[in-house]
Amino acid sequence: MRAKLSYALTAAVLVVYFLLVGTRGVMLIQSGTVLTVTFGVAVLILPVIGVWFLWKNTQFVRRANRLAAELDAEGGLPVDELKRTPGGRIDRDSADEVFARRKAETEAAPDDWRTWFRLAVAYHDARDTPRARKAMQHAISLHGSARHPSSP
Fold this sequence. Notes:
Helix content is 79%, strand content 0%. The protein is mostly helical. Helix 1 runs antiparallel to helix 2 (34-74), helix 3 runs antiparallel to helix 4 and helix 4 (113-125) packs antiparallel against helix 5 (129-147).
């Protein structure tokens, strides 16, 4: 719940920022000189990119959460079996051990979105965020393909 609240607050702050920047861009364009119109258009590009990024990220999070809920309903969410340091951080050797098992599961069933979801969690636990995101995107893609198979 805390993560959802934090995400919502961050998204709200970004939207307010995009609105403020956007109004400044419009004001620059309304000034009418070549220089201010050029700067105004350039300033308007930033909120457009930001809104697109925020939208894509929100879609990713919602889809990943749907997969997590479905996997939880099936009883297939990965169990937290990681050892932790006294400070609460994940022990690297423990994360590597779990990762090796998750990778083997994924190699044995490469078309199962569930194994890719669990691999994404293992990547995340190993602090490899880019690979965790790619694995989760693949799980989302496989899940979508399984629900809507393409016709030959």
